[in-house]
Amino acid sequence: MKPQKLSFEKKILVFFFLTLILISVIVFLSIRINTETKSTRNWVSLTEKVLSLADSLQNDEQEVVIQSRSFILTANENYLLSYTATNASLQRNLARLRQFTRENRWQQKKVDSLQAIYMGYLPIRQQAINLRRQKNFQLADVVQLIYKADTVLAQLRDIFHSLKSEQKQLLNDRKAAYQKNVEFSAWVVRILLLLFVFAILLAFYLVYRNSVNRRKAELALRKSEELVKSIIHYAPILVNVKDRSGKYILANQQFATAIQADAEHMIGKTCEGIIPPAIEALVNKEDNEVIKHGQPVELMIDLDAPGGKHTFLTSKFPLYDDKGSLYAIGTTAIDITPLKTSHEALLKSFENQQKILDGLQQALRTSLDLLCIIDGNGEFIMLSDTVRQLLGYAPKELMHKKFMDFVVESDRSQTAVIARQIMDGEPVADFTNHYRKKDGSIIPIIWSATWSAEDKLMYCIARNGSERVKTARQLAQSETRLLHAQKIARLGNWDWDLRNNTWSCSDEIYHLFGVAKETITNTQQFLLDSIHPEDKQQLVNARESLLAKGGKIDIEHRIITANGAILFVHTKGEVSLDNEGHPFWFSGTMQDITERKRSELQMKQLNSDLEKRAEELKASNAELERFAYVASHDLQEPLRMVTSFLALLQKKHQNEFDETSKKYIHFAVDGAERMKGLIQDLLHYSRVGASAEAFGTVDLNVLIKELQTVFAPALRENMGILNVQPLPVVSGHKMQLHQLFQNLIGNALKYRSSQNPFIEVGCTDEKEYWRFFVKDNGIGIDQRYFDKIFIIFQRLHTRTDYSGTGIGLAICKKIVERHGGKIWVKSEPGQGSTFYFTLKKSHNA
Amino acid sequence: MLKEVRILLVEDNEGDIVLTMEALKEAKIRNEIDVVKDGEAALQFLRKAGVYKEASTPDLIFLDINLPKIDGMEILSIIKNDEQLKVIPVIMLTTSDAERDIMKSYYNHANCYITKPVDLDKFMSIIQTIKNFWINIVKLPKTND
Predict the structure, then answer these.
(1) CB of B40 within 8 A of CB of B69?
(2) In B, which residues are within 8 Å of A682 by CB distance?
(3) CA of B96 vs chain A CAs: smallest distance (Å)
């Protein structure tokens, strides 16, 4: 982080604190030196006292020795008096020494041992004295005691010495340490004092400099204020300053003039009633915007002034005080009316020029045209770079060469004629001649040129003509192809220029109508006349609508050709509108669709026939079913009568009949029974078609399982096997499918051969169908009867051989057909039979 | 005391009338059987109109479907919409076993529907069963003459 520059006040404050700390340090150090000195002095005096005490002790000890010895030698009691006094003084001094050295453990110890030795010596001395006082004393004993006492004293002396020397050493050390300490502190104090002086000097300098600077700044400020005032006063710009509440703090004369107010009276008032009401809201809004965001804004203010509207480019900006809070909004405005007007005009003319210039540049860049200038001698004097593509020469290569040299010889004479024409002041456009390129090949070139008589120069624009020549050739080719195609399609086209009322029809139109193009003078009338009378009105209406509001036509109608044949044609066309919405062009095609129409009609006829037949068939089928149902129903009734009364007859009058009568009655009963069977089968058969039950999903595996139960006894009886492969779930009529499988499996069992019956049921997937088969190893069927077996009541065997009415397979066929399938058989007599049938998978259709 | 049951047989086929009478005789029912041969007669009988002024209200009606003039289905509908007659049980006794006849009968509140079997013995046993059920087992509503 960049350290912030400290203000002058802060600097001084910091400085003051630093000085304070400095003084504190000096005072502290001085006190410390003083204390140190005092304590050292005390100590020195103490040590000196100890030393002198040690000296006096030593003296006392010598005194004691001398005085005791003197008594022993002399036995003069006076010596003993001094001895006692000296002894007491020695004791006192020893006590004082102990007091002085109480802070030194080592010396205390020494004092202890001093005292102990002395105490050990006293009794010996006293003993010697006492011995001397006896009259018959032995000198040898006294001497021995004295000697003993001296030995002890010698120890005492040693201790004195060591004590003294130690004390002296200590004194020296103390003195040295004191010296060092005091000297260091003194130095520090000196340095700090120096620093202090320096700091005071520095502070004085800073204060001085600051006051000088401030005076300079005040002077500059006053100057710049004057300057700003002058600028505000004289500058051709509108200035005002408002405080946050919108009251004017400052406004210059230009501003006052612009709003036609008095500058003096504005100060301290809001803009209400001062500035024109038309702009008041805008000004207030923008002021608030500045206060809200603290950002300057720029806006245009239009002011109605005498002599027209003036536009002011206005800036509003926030003014901040030194605490950084917004206290006022400044506004400056410049009348840009003249500037705007001239700027707009300038912009417009510049835009126009720019457009032209851009267009030209674009054209030149993208153009493949050759631009060249040829002088009066027919020489190139300027060529654009595009000549490279056109002729293969660089512009330089052709400069000052005669253009005619590059024109193919066969074209030269004509070119010369044209060149002359141009030079005579008749500009030429779209003149084509051939040039020889640098590589020798020939290229057609299209020219436009003009002659400037003033410059005596020919200005030319040239273009590669190959494309045009090629296009023309291709156009011719494609036209031929079109005509050919039209001929094949029997389709012609026309264009009708509505403005000039001119027609242009392709050859095929005339072919369709069977006329020669040349014989037609009024195309429109001819076409109208050729339309089939029944279709004419429709076409006339369509044409009127088209010519009124444009649009398209797409219509099929008939025409009558020149040889009287009627053709169906398909006419398609469109009328185009010009910019003002008026139709001006009608183009279209006409195609012969007679063949298609004819087959369509035939198809329609066939379809309606077919539908009719289907309806009839449906009706007749329904009729048939109804008939079968009613017939069988109504047949039941009389039959019931016959059988019932025959039975009643048998029951009640049995005994009255002879054998012949009984036989006749038997035949009658048998016939009635058969009749009953036939009727029931017929009823059954008719119901297959009449059932109202809807189709559902049928799981054939479940269905077959039920049938296996039904056939189980018969199979067991005949030692037969029914082998069923997995079958699908199909969509169908459950009862009918049940009947279908029951009939087929039943037949397979019924028409069994001498072998044990082996019946197989299976199914294959045939995309839209399921194909089922029921295969047996029975007696088989002759191919001749393959169709007959499916016809109702058709039997192949006598009732004696096989019972039944011959309806089973007919019902099967009907059921299969009802399910949208087919049923057929493959068989050979004695080889078994396989019945196939299909069921449609989906019955949606 | 054996109760006497009155049956109205509406049947146009002479043979069927004979057979039904035979069967009822065989079933040893103490009964009185009135027979009418067409729909109009049946309605007159039930409403005691015309020649049937003296007729008594039946306890049970045997009704055929195929009848001249007014068919059985219509008679059924009229009976079952009549406040007085609708309490009388109606047994449809007919040759038809067509699904739609059965449905239509029950839809019109027939009390039961029986297809006449072709076989005489079966017919006899059915009449026997009807007797058992409708005369011995079922409690019939009281009819006031």
Answers:
(1) yes
(2) none
(3) 7
The reply to whether B116 touches chain A by the CB within 8 Å rule is yes
Closest residue to B15, CB basis, from A633, A645, A647? A645
Q: Which residues of A touch B64 (CB under 8 A)?
A: none
CA distance A777 to A524: 84
Nearest to A637 by CA among B18, B111, B94: B94
Residues A832/A834/A835/A837 CA torsion (nearest 10 deg): 180
Q: Find out whether A536 and A559 touch, Cβ atoms under 8 Å.
A: no
Name every chain A residue with its beta carbon within 8 A of the beta carbon of B120: 643-644, 647-648, 651
Instruction: Flag if B119 and A645 touch (Cβ within 8 Å).
Output: no
Q: Taking a C-beta distance cutoff of 8 angstroms, is the pair A318, A329 a contact? A: yes
Contact residues on chain B for A676, CB-CB shorter than 8 A: 118
Which letter does DSSP use for residue B96 in this model?
A: -
Q: What is the Rg, in whole angstroms, of the alpha carbon atoms belonging to chain A?
A: 75
Q: How far apart are the C-alpha atoms of A29 and A32, rounded to whole Å?
A: 5
The single-letter DSSP state of residue A829 is T
- What are the beta bridge partners of residue A583? A577
Give Cβ neighbours of residue A84 (< 8 Å, ≥ 6 apart).
none
Give the count of beta carbons closer than 10 Å to the beta carbon of residue A76: 10
What's the predicted TM-score (pTM) here? 0.36
| Cα-based angle A171, A174, A179 (whole degrees, multiple of 5) | 125
Encoding tokens for residue A636? Answer: 């039941």
Taking the CA atoms of residue A752, residue A754, residue A757 and residue A763 in that order, the dihedral angle to the nearest 10 degrees is -60
In terms of DSSP H, where are the helices of A250-314?
253-258, 263-266, 277-293
Residues 6+ apart with CB under 8 A from A735: A691, A693
Cβ atoms within 10 Å, residue A218: 10
Residue A108 CA to residue A166 CA, distance in Å, equals 13
Strands A457-464 and A442-452: antiparallel
Q: Which among B83, B91, B87, B85 has a CA at the least distance from the CA of B65?
A: B91
Percent residues over pLDDT 70 in chain A: 96
ipTM for the predicted complex comes to 0.71
Instruction: CATH number for B5-135: choose from 3.90.1210.10, 2.102.10.10, 3.40.50.2300, 3.30.43.10.
Output: 3.40.50.2300
pLDDT along chain A (845 residues), means of 10: 62 83 85 81 80 82 81 80 82 82 78 81 80 77 80 80 82 81 81 86 86 90 86 82 86 83 82 82 86 86 78 87 86 83 82 72 61 86 79 85 89 89 85 88 87 84 81 84 83 86 85 84 83 89 85 89 88 86 87 88 90 85 75 76 84 84 83 81 75 79 91 90 92 89 91 91 91 93 86 74 79 89 91 92 65
What is the number of alpha carbons within 13 Å of residue A130 lying toward its C-beta?
6
Q: How far apart are CA A690 and CA A686, in angstroms?
A: 7
Closest CA to A374 of A422, A434, A431: A422
What CA–CA distance (Å, rounded) separates A830 from A828?
Answer: 6
For residues A324 and A616, give the distance between their C-alpha atoms in angstroms, rounded to a whole number: 106
Instruction: Give the integer Cα–Cα distance in Å for A539 and A588.
Output: 14
> Residue A819 phi/psi, 5° resolution?
-95, 15
Domains of chain B, by residue range, sit at 5-135
H-type helices in A409-514, by residue range? Answer: 409-423, 466-489, 507-513
- Measured N-to-C along each axis, helices A594-653 and B14-26 cross at an angle, to the nearest 10 degrees, of 40
3-state helix, strand, coil in chain B (%, to 5): 45, 15, 40
CB A55 within 8 A of CB A167: no
- How many angstroms away from the CA of A638 is the closest CA of chain B? 9
Which residue pairs from A194-200 have beta carbons closer than 8 angstroms and sit at least 24 positions apart in sequence?
Answer: A195/A22, A196/A19, A196/A22, A196/A23, A196/A26, A199/A15, A199/A18, A199/A19, A199/A22, A200/A19
Containing A239, the helix (H) or strand (E) segment is strand A238-243
